[in-house]
Amino acid sequence: MLKPVIITLFAFFAINTTANAQSNLAQEIGIFAGPVTLQSDFGQRNNFDTNVGNSGFGIGLMHFINFSAANNHESFFTEHFKVRSELSFSHTQLKHYGEWVDKKPPTLAVILLQNMHASSTTVGLGSQLEFSLIKIHDFENTVGSFNPYVSAGFQVNYYSAKVGSHLGDMTLPSVTVGKYLMPSDGRPHGFSTEDGVVVSATGSIGVHYKMTTMSDLMFETRFQMYSNDWIDGLNPNKDVYKENKSNDWQVWFNFGYIYYLEF
User: Does this model's pTM top 0.90?
Assistant: First the structure.
């Protein structure tokens, strides 16, 4: 896991260095953290217990390129857009929830599902284009104001998925439900403890609060869709199990602090 993290760190600092070389751009840095929920093959779809139970935490560093703060020639782009670069980390513990594990009395299949567990860790590096609903200059000059925004972008993500059962060897029919023993997507089974690199698309909606002249608070909800279905280590054969139709995706609830740098 160390090598991908080092690569992402070097890339992140390279972005910052390039931005600092542009004299007509202002810089902002920040940190965010908050709960995340991984929407995956663990648990029942659209189930409250699944959404709450399969939640973890995320944390990250942000860097903004602000075209407005150091620009005397206002345009729609400079007054409404920023570029946000980000290095983020998330970790989630996973179990099965919902009607398939709540059956009474429990059948053998229910017991096998109840004993399955997994963890998913991601490290992401990427950028978003952020659109502010009000003029950035107006927001920056008014302490106590709010600035709603939306953003969209992409990330490159390193993931580490670990899957197991409290009952023992998951390759045994006495331990794992048959649905997950069938080969899937090039793997010998529908489960896999593995590391990998994927891309993801991100979309966010949030609000900045002008706390002081040189600092903001931030809250956002972000949706992140991954390009494969192994982020949680579970992926039943899609040709057989048609309900397994979506790749893994994640929802972040981020609280952040942003500081304006003077150059």
Answer: no
